[in-house]
Amino acid sequence: MNPERQKLFQDGMRQLPTLPYPNSSRNGEALDTDEAAIWKRVLNYRLASFLRPRLLLETHPGVGVSTSLYRHASPKTDIFYGAAMLAPRVDLIDVDPFGSPWDTLQKVKHLISRNCVVQVSNGEAHAVRRNLRRGQKYPTRYFGRRLPQWVVWEYLPRLQSVIGLKVRFFYAFPTTVRAILAEKELPETLWEGCPRWMWWLRKYAVRALPGGLEGFHGGYGVE
Asked: Residue 213 falls within a domain, yes or no?
């Protein structure tokens, strides 16, 4: 990990409370896998602290690192697991599969309302980067260094269309994209310190997207 990545990693760690986190090397589920894993948990913690949701759904809780943070941030929140949960109203949904999110999104779509905030991780970024078309539900021509174009021009608009909410923030890492969607505006302070493009994507996003996010009609903090 180079000095820039190490600083981002350490900055994220300082944002998190000291807890007895579960640990596992399975599918990168440990808290300290990389800077993207750290900042996913930072944003989870900030969102739960801000929203104080009554009901929270984690579709893929893994070993429970994010669960620990959700419980610490909002002790009165009822947390459910799995995509088949039935509830009249869910305030926060965390879709975090190892791979594509599309099948899970179809299973939880009936739980998403205008008042819901949805976080989605998409591991297809790894397949897009390496041009592994079998690992993509919607194969793209924007592979390799053009991955930022796939994120902005194809993936995020499709995600908004499927969920019916606006992208309020996202960050991209060479192996995953994390997006946060909501109908209502959310404070920019929730994303403070989290770069939109991580690692080498920062350099290639400038080249691939000379107009920045121009042309992507997302939500607050994205346009």
From this structure: no
